[in-house]
Amino acid sequence: MKLTRKEKSKLIIEGFITIGLILILYYAAFVIFNRMLADFPGIIRGFWFFGDAIISIQGNQIISLTPFFIIILTIVAVVTIHWRLKRRYKQMQLNHIISELHYIAEGHYEHRITKDFGGDMEKIVESIHVLVDSTVQAMEEERRIEQSKDELITNVSHDIRTPLTSIIGYLGLIEERRYQNEEELLKYTHTAYTKAKQMKVLVEDLFEYTKVRQTTTPLNVSEFDMVQLLEQLAADFELEAGKRHMEIEVVTSYEAIQMEADTEKLVRVFNNLISNALKYGKDGKKIFIEVQKAGKEVIISVNNDGSPIPQKSLDQLFDRFYRVEESRSQETGGTGLGLAIAQSIVALHGGYIYASSDAHLTRFVMHLPLKQLTEKNNKADFS
């Protein structure tokens, strides 16, 4: 640490003061011993076992110190001075660190304390840097959460306001009897009913999203056959796929894959993925679900050969309220929560999901463990 001129002056003064105190102490000891020798010569000489190795005594007075004793006193003085100056130097280092901390606390979180202290002080500085970094990360995370909450409120308000405006508008027409005949009345009520159902779907998806985002959400774990589950889902979507002139099938080399998971939540995931494939893969002809086992996990891929997803959208697919089709049309513009819910459910099971897309194929791939951890099973037992 580089000392200021004032600090160097303080160290020099400290050194001189320490030397003065040591000399006074030595002189006081010399006088006291001489006095004791004069008053109690017999006693002192009877207990005196150092002899001439330390001092020379003539009559009842000390006449000289031996070179050996002078060296000992000098060493003691040097050690004492060094200890005092080192202690004061560490205090100066600590004052520097405290001053730097005050500067950081004023909001200069990017500032770093110099690490040229050495020894324990350097470890303290490194610990302070770790603490500051973790505090900054916590503050950034808090800001991100607050921003995320604001975005959530904004998106929910936007998506609810649109159908609500339509509902109020059509019900207003009915309330004011501004319709020509019963057919027009039924048209207004049907439109209001349709918009109300859209709001219901949004509210349900929002509730499901907030529920599965909590890491403490219990899993109702049961053992089942993944291949059989996917084949049943493919059969359920077969009619809808036929209406869109698409085929849907399960592709696997396994007759059965036994695993543990919350089937109700996983069905929600597959429903979202297959529904997206039917909506956004409408230019394609086929949806196929691949299932394979690798070690202690099962890998499931929901694929379609429709139009590819733009590369810029792939990284945002699992963000809540994100839609590839920004127009939010009634036909394909869902709540924007489906994939976010799917990702959260997969994460609850200890797995992960990602997407890839090119001119030939769009794939949603998820990795799920075959067995759930004991603590998750225990949570499910208590639910």
Structure report:
- The protein is α+β, with helices and mostly antiparallel strands and 383 residues long.
- It folds into three domains: 5-111, no CATH class; 137-212, Signal transduction histidine kinase, dimerisation/phosphotransfer (DHp) domain (Helix Hairpins); 222-382, Histidine kinase-like ATPase, C-terminal domain (Heat Shock Protein 90, 2-Layer Sandwich), CATH 3.30.565.
- It is built from eleven helices and nine strands.
- It has helices at 5-39, 41-47, 67-105, 119-175, 182-212, 226-236, 238-243, 263-280, 311-314, 338-348, 374-382; strands spanning 55-58, 61-65, 222-225, 247-252, 258-261, 286-294, 297-304, 352-357, 362-369.
- A five-stranded mixed beta sheet has the order 4-6-7-9-8. It has a two-stranded antiparallel sheet with strand order 1-2. It has a two-stranded antiparallel sheet with strand order 3-5.
- A hairpin with a 2-residue loop joins strand 1 and strand 2 (61-65).
- Mean pLDDT is 80; it is low at 326-333 and 375-383.
